Amino acid sequence: MANATHLLSLFILIQLNCVALSSHGHGHGNATASFCRPDQAASLVQLKQSFIFDYSTTTLPSWQTGTDCCLWEGIGCDDGGGRVTVLDLGGCGLYSYSCHAALFNLTSLRYLDLSMNDFGGSRIPASGFQRLSKLTHLNLSYSGFYGQVPIAIGKLKSLISLDLSSRKNIAPDETMHTYGIVDGYNFLVLREPSLETLVANLTNLRELYLDMVDISSSGEEWCSGLGEAVPHLQVLSMADCQLQGPIHSSLSSLRSLTVINLENNGDVSGVVPEFLADFRNLSVLRLSFNDLSGWFPERIFQLKNIRFLDVSNNRLSGDLPEFSNGTSLETLNLYNNDFSGMIKPGSFSNLLSLKELALDGRGVGAIFLMD
Ligand SMILES: *[C@@H]1O[C@H](CO)[C@@H](O)[C@H](O)[C@H]1NC(C)=O
Ligand SMILES: *[C@@H]1O[C@H](CO)[C@@H](O)[C@H](O)[C@H]1NC(C)=O
Ligand SMILES: *[C@@H]1O[C@H](CO)[C@@H](O)[C@H](O)[C@H]1NC(C)=O
Ligand SMILES: *[C@@H]1O[C@H](CO)[C@@H](O)[C@H](O)[C@H]1NC(C)=O
Ligand SMILES: *[C@@H]1O[C@H](CO)[C@@H](O)[C@H](O)[C@H]1NC(C)=O
Ligand SMILES: *[C@@H]1O[C@H](CO)[C@@H](O)[C@H](O)[C@H]1NC(C)=O
């Protein structure tokens, strides 16, 4: 039963594109000088041996002992030292029963992408990641890991981008639901350490994707530590995380945010804070399917960079805004709330970029597609 599930999920994966089509070619001005170190090649070969290629988009043919691993598919090295700094196997559809510990001997890695592979629904390694202390980019999204996100990841102080998400919409059609794959899928959890503990020392973080990670145990404090811990954050994506309670004022210091996605948590409640209107670079605000109420800050409509605004399916009220010339809005979804007021003639004609609009209540009860 479990095996059938994996086979099918892999079958779906093979339709995805493996991005690792070629070597990353860092520091190949002189191939001799950057010839990979034997211990690095050995770790990679061990890793290769832990993969099953039945459903993959590549069999890693270039990964051959005795050749320069800096030239292998998906690999990049530092200049001159022959140490592997890039391992990009994202979207390769590789299968493995677990994550081989040889990975953690690649201690010079800066960029690690194992997304869209299938680690057999195994537990994410509790220990090991802390050895990859130079990592700036870590992408484990949709790789089949489950269980508690290890504190080891919270020790990677150089991280700029962390993606542990899995996304429901990855399912190409209803097939996955029919076969119960989505329901049978095991998720990552942030309980001990909590989200707050995990990010406490990740002060360089710019992008944090945790969609579908179970963060329910943080309770109402789910974002109370973020403002202080990750001041430079630009992307905060926590859809489907079972978050509950208000958007904490701690977030008000995250003025660099360009993307906020808290969709589909169900129990994110309280008001949409006025301070979001001070985030000059905000371009995506997704708050749909929550329990937000009160008056929606009109100034958010006026943000110059806002492109995608979806607060549908809450209990918000507010006035339909008068849009000024020069807004960037492409999608505006206020559906299933309690917005009211007149649409002023000419106001919407200022929305030169608008492609999708959904309103209801006393205003307009339909979805328009304007192209
Ligand atoms: C490459 O490096 C080797 C050894 O350091 C050196 O002898 C050779 O001249 C270099 N070749 C080029 C094209 O720079
Ligand atoms: C990792 O490297 C150590 C030596 O630094 C070695 O003893 C060990 O076997 C290596 N482990 C793996 C899994 O390659
Ligand atoms: C992680 O990988 C997925 C799938 O390959 C990709 O869609 C996503 O953009 C990546 N995340 C980041 C932060 O680059
Ligand atoms: C963060 O740093 C502090 C001070 O160095 C340390 O006590 C704490 O254990 C660190 N947290 C993590 C998750 O590594
Ligand atoms: C907003 O974006 C601009 C241009 O990318 C950048 O220079 C500026 O620092 C950003 N503002 C904040 C508060 O991050
Ligand atoms: C809005 O600005 C565009 C160009 O920036 C201009 O062509 C258009 O006439 C303006 N519309 C209104 C209603 O002022």
TrEMBL record:
Annotated Leucine-rich repeat-containing N-terminal plant-type domain ranges read: 38-78
Where in the sequence is the signal peptide annotated?
1-22
A GO term from the CC aspect: plasma membrane
The record ties this protein, via Gene3D superfamilies, to:
Ribonuclease Inhibitor (3.80.10.10)
Instruction: Describe its membrane topology.
Output: Single-pass type I membrane protein
Supply the Pfam families for this chain: LRR_1 (PF00560), LRR_6 (PF13516), LRR_8 (PF13855), LRRNT_2 (PF08263)
Cellular compartments annotated = Cell membrane
Please give the chief subcellular localization of this protein: membrane
Name used for this protein in its record: Leucine-rich repeat-containing N-terminal plant-type domain-containing protein
